[in-house]
Amino acid sequence: MRARDIAEPFPTVSLDADAMAAVRTMAAERAPGLIVCGDDGRPYTVLPGSQVLNFIIPKYVQDQPGLARAFGERASDELSTKLVRHTVRDMVPKAADADEIPVVHPDATTIEVAAVMAKMHSPLVAVVDGERMVGAITVSQLLTHLLPV
Amino acid sequence: MRARDIAEPFPTVSLDADAMAAVRTMAAERAPGLIVCGDDGRPYTVLPGSQVLNFIIPKYVQDQPGLARAFGERASDELSTKLVRHTVRDMVPKAADADEIPVVHPDATTIEVAAVMAKMHSPLVAVVDGERMVGAITVSQLLTHLLPV
Known about the structure:
2 copies of one chain form a homodimer.
Chain A: H1 3-6, E1 12-14, H2 19-28, E2 33-37, E3 43-48, H3 49-56, H4 59-63, H5 72-83, H6 88-91, E4 103-104, H7 110-120, E5 124-129, E6 132-138, H8 139-146
Parallel strand pairs in A: 1-2, 4-5
Antiparallel strand pairs in A: 2-3, 5-6
Helix pairs in contact in A: 7-8
């Protein structure tokens, strides 16, 4: 069993995509994150959902979540305005290093995929053939194939 | 909209549960992780799928994933034996601190839930009423409710 046999379609967005559209995609697909592709079309980084929340929830609310109850309405409005006029590039953590994205070749074995996920503490790997993204593999999909029947 | 209205059932396991059974649950439910409950029944920590892989994939394979291709069969066997005769307790990271699990009260607002997820970089929060776990909220579920219609 190779990575190409397990890979499934996974939502990707470009760095210049509209932030609101990207977040809507994440919500609609029930995805825990999105794969962000760079200008060359190759996966550049993974944008986890928690990072989106980190972008849209004001720092003072994060510091004292209990306050959110009192500031609910105002915070909701700030949220929407924060996503409008921003791109995915604005939400991606600044320290993102292109080397950090978990990527495997379509020929990678299941154990190889598992090793990459384990090493990078990632719930997801992108399967990339040269310049083309074939799909992605989540940890639960992988476990299904790794476990003895 | 409160946490209790969004929370959905989420697979939980106890610390003393059989490791193999727990991993099968994660795979069958297509869950990115499991909520681990302590001896008192309250959520104790989250066991991410990548941590399971970290437990079962030998360190030398993690260090050089390319080697996995050559050692495929042997590594697969080691994997199965590693899960047998182990419990969830063995797979949970040793440094796990009970304070680190993202937990909210059923009355928490969506913004409050978002703040907790953002602060803790978690794709998931457990919704707990006293001693009872009501369910869990994933980041994509939350985004569905946070975004303007």
